[in-house]
Amino acid sequence: MGLFPTATAKVAWRTQTISYQIVIYWGWFELVRVRPPCYTESVGEGRKVMKMSEFVEVGFSSEVRKALADFVAGKALEAEGKAKKAEAEKILREALGEAKVAKIGGAVAYKLVNGSNRSADLKALAENYPEAYEAVVRVSEYDFVRAV
Questions:
Q1: Concatenated DSSP letters for 4-31?
Q2: What is the 3-state secondary structure (H, E, C) of 91-122?
Q3: pLDDT in tens, 70-101
Q4: What CA–CA distance (Å, rounded) separates 96 from 111?
Q5: Cβ neighbours around 23 below 10 Å, total
Q6: Fewer C-beta neighbours within 10 Å, C or N terminus of the chain?
Q7: What CA–CA distance (Å, rounded) separates 25 from 67?
Q8: Could you give the 3-state DSSP secondary structure of residue 88?
Q9: Where in the chain are the domains?
Q10: Rounded alpha-carbon distances, angstroms, from residue 146 to 1, 18, 136
Q11: What is the C-alpha to C-alpha distance for residues 126 and 132, in angstroms, rounded to an integer?
C-alpha cells in the first residue's frame, strides 16, 4: 500500500482482461494500468523477459506526464513537418523549372544543389564476401524512449 488509497478494477476488453489501479490523491483520481508482474516484450527475433524491477510508477509526477504528452505531440509535429517539407519542396522544384537558382525581388531565395551519397549493399557483401562482411560490419546497440 502506497501513500495514497488505491483500488483495483478489472476491465474485459476483446479477448483479454486489463487491470487498472485507481489511485486517489488530494481529491483527484487517476487510472493506472497494472501490468502483470512479469511479461514478455518482443525484441528483434528473440524474446526478452521484462522483470518487475524494470518498471517504475511515474504517474504521480506531473512533470513526467507533461513531458510524455510533449514527447508524443513532438513526434506528431515531426511527422507533420516532414509532410509539409516534402510538399513545399515539390512546389519549389516545380517553380524552378529548368533553372538552378530562384530569386524573389532580385535576391536569391533558394537554389538547387547537387549532392551524393555512398552506401554499401551489406546483403550482397555478406553473400559474396562473408569474411569481409564479418571484418567490417559493426552492430551498435542503443536504447530510446517509445511512447506506448
A1: S-EEEEEEEETTEEEEEEEEEETTEEEE
A2: HHHHHHCCCCEEEECCEEEEECCCCCCCCCCH
A3: 999 999 999 999 999 999 999 999 999 999 99
A4: 8
A5: 19
A6: C
A7: 21
A8: helix
A9: 1-58, 61-114
A10: 29, 21, 30
A11: 8
Give residue for cell 510538399. Answer: 87
Mean pLDDT score of the chain: 76
Per-residue pLDDT tens digits for 93-143: 999 999 999 999 999 999 999 999 999 899 999 999 999 999 998 888 888
**In the block, which residue shows the cell 530569386?**
103
Grid cell 478489472 is found at 10
CA distance 27 to 5: 11
Place of cell 514478455: 40
- pTM exceeds 0.85, yes or no: no
* Range from 8-12, 47-51, 61-65, 122-126 that averages highest in pLDDT: 122-126
pLDDT value at residue 145: 85
139 membership: H or E segment, kind and range: none
Amino acid at 72: V
How many residues does this entry show for the chain? Answer: 148
